[in-house]
Amino acid sequence: MSKTALINAVKDVSAEVDATQADKQFTETSQQSIKKVADHAKQSPERQKKFAEAAGVLGGVLSGKLPSYKLQEAMTTSDFPILFGDVMDRLLLAGYRSAPSTFQMYTRTTTVRDFRPVQRKYVDGADGLLDQVEEQAEYPADSVDEGAYSYRVHKYGKVLPFSWETFINDDLDAFADMPQRLGRGASRSEENFVTRLYVGANGLNTNFFNSSNGNIVEGNPVLNMDGLLKAYLQMSNQRDPHSDMPILNSPTYLVVPPELEIIARQLVNATEIRMQQGDSTIISSNYMNQLQIVVNRFIPIVTGGSASPWFLFADPNEGRGALEFGRLRGHEEPEIFVKTPNAQRAGGGDVGYMQGDFATDSITYKIRHVFGGTQLDRLFVVGSDSSGGTAGTSGVATTGKAKK
């Protein structure tokens, strides 16, 4: 995040707490970053006034209208460091929320109470067809299978130190950029974690995709219309292993790495499918255009570029879903902290945290984020590592016409 963007964010704080500037427009980033700050500031008129004053000082220094010593002086007061921390905290959240993230589309997201293992219990059975019962005959007994998926959340984070000299030298670009970078890092950490639940070094995570699970597309075809049709039919034909009944796992999301994005869009956006059967060409509408394309840019990071896997996921809101991602309740978003200084002046009195620690004068920030997740039901996803070449001889092809 640039210094200009932070200045806009600070201005946006002032606009939110000053009714006379309520209509002032700022960048989308600043609007997202500061909304909750303004809500927090409106808790009381006194805090609202102080927040506006703090935002004015910070914005003035960053824009060059005020000398840097004004910010240094403000940091010695009792309220400004707290208010400055609020701005940094919300800029962190702006970076977190604005970073590209795709896994929520095909992954069930939830919250968990604490760090203890979470048990997602399930029951299969008793939902099959009813048996006909003859007169005075006993009703046949049925049974259910019980099981559970288990996982726990973990802490993730890092520290980022700044020197006291950086602050004195008025190099505030570092402070302006730091929260946004940490926020993006938190979002990327989530995306990377979920990607590794189903992607492995060779394409497919073999703990989830294997022959016994029946969720590898037959032949591991490349992504073309033949392969996509095969994957679609294989997933649609999945049955409840207990009752052999159909399940709600309609293919909804086509998840691909960046190198397959153009091919995926050509397949999904085509208006027609042409199938050659003998000497006849059968033309039908492209029912694949109901699929939503999700480009996961972390797939090549996990595979190292050695494979180009692709996947069909069901809607996680229907049925059990393939994956679950959980955040710690009350700490759903990343949090930023600053190290309390361990020094005081020789004549007595505490020093502000912008004076740095006793040993090195370092000003240290910390980001903390808590999350976890697990693989759920194998019936709600199919995948191919593209190692098998073309999918077969069905003769299916797109017309190349784009959907309007």
What's the short version?
The chain is of the alpha+beta class. The protein has helices spanning 3-17, 28-41, 45-63, 68-74, 80-98, 164-168, 173-198, 225-236, 261-269, 299-303; strands at residues 108-112, 118-125, 144-151, 154-163, 251-256, 272-277, 280-285, 292-295, 310-314, 323-328, 335-338, 362-375, 381-384, 396-398.
Show the helix and strand layout.
Layout: H1 3-17, H2 28-41, H3 45-63, H4 68-74, H5 80-98, E1 108-112, E2 118-125, E3 144-151, E4 154-163, H6 164-168, H7 173-198, H8 225-236, E5 251-256, H9 261-269, E6 272-277, E7 280-285, E8 292-295, H10 299-303, E9 310-314, E10 323-328, E11 335-338, E12 362-375, E13 381-384, E14 396-398
Parallel strand pairs: 1-10, 5-8
Antiparallel strand pairs: 2-3, 4-12, 5-9, 6-7, 6-14, 9-13, 10-12, 11-12
Helix pairs in contact: 1-2, 1-3, 2-5, 3-4, 3-5, 5-7
In percent, how helical is the residue content? 25-40%
Query: Over the alpha carbons, how many angstroms does the gyration radius reach?
Result: 28 Å
CATH class of the largest domain: Alpha Beta
User: Could you report the average pLDDT, rounded to the nearest whole number?
Assistant: 77
Describe the fold and architecture.
With 404 residues, the protein is of the alpha+beta class. The protein has two domains: 1-98, no CATH class; 105-120 and 151-404, Alpha-Beta Complex (phage-related protein like fold). 32% of the residues lie in helices and 22% in strands. Helix 2 (28-41) crosses helix 5 (80-98), helix 3 (45-63) packs antiparallel against helix 4 (68-74) and helix 3 (45-63) packs across helix 5. The protein is elongated and about 95 Å long. The model is unreliable at 9-38 and 395-404 (pLDDT under 50).
